Amino acid sequence: MSTSDFWTDLRVTTQARIGLGRAGDALPTTRVLEFRAAHAAARDAVHMPLDTDSFAREIAAVGLGDPVVVSSKASTRSEYLRRPDLGRQPEDLSGVDTVDADIGIVLCDGLSPRALMDHGAGLLAALKESLGTFTIASPVIATQARVALGDHVGAALGVSTLIVVIGERPGLSVADSLGIYLTHGPKPGRNDSERNCISNIHPPGGMHYDHAARVTASLVAGARTLGRSGVDLKDSSRELT
Prior knowledge:
By secondary structure, the chain is of the alpha/beta class. 38% of the residues lie in helices and 15% in strands. Helix 6 (113-130) links the parallel strand 2 and strand 3.
């Protein structure tokens, strides 16, 4: 087997940049251009604004109710990137009403609004299916948002369990990946150790919506039994299959 064939076969199994080759003391021109294209895609994903009107229509079509749109105290994308603290604080939650529901779902643009646009509605539909035994509040869309902003929304909704779906930081392999953060008993001041995370959701190259939803449902059930989420809560979804 030639060296070229060896790396070609391995590349099928990973999105990592492996076996790039060399041209003298540098990378081949093709690999340099691929790197620059991937870097540009990652930068675009970070700076791309969320089309809230179009996205809200997609979310409403899932059938969990008309979404409420909120924003953080970061007024611009530039400020959001420079001031993570502002992205964790809501600007105004007067439109978020207390509801009689078990679960709240907040859809945050995070560091990849593109990921939310590409996968948010599909993932929400899968969550709706997997969480059918629980009551779910109408979704909330949050812009310029960090994960902890969801704690404020969850407290305003009055739900016992919160699911934050957020665009993950783009890399040179994937620019449109979503993450899920689950917090039981959401309230401002929760630590990251009190959350459970499911990451790398971006079919077909990453985790599929149905898989992520199944793991989420398992964690929700476990959190409600245990009375808390975070480091003490483990994924038992494999035990149920």
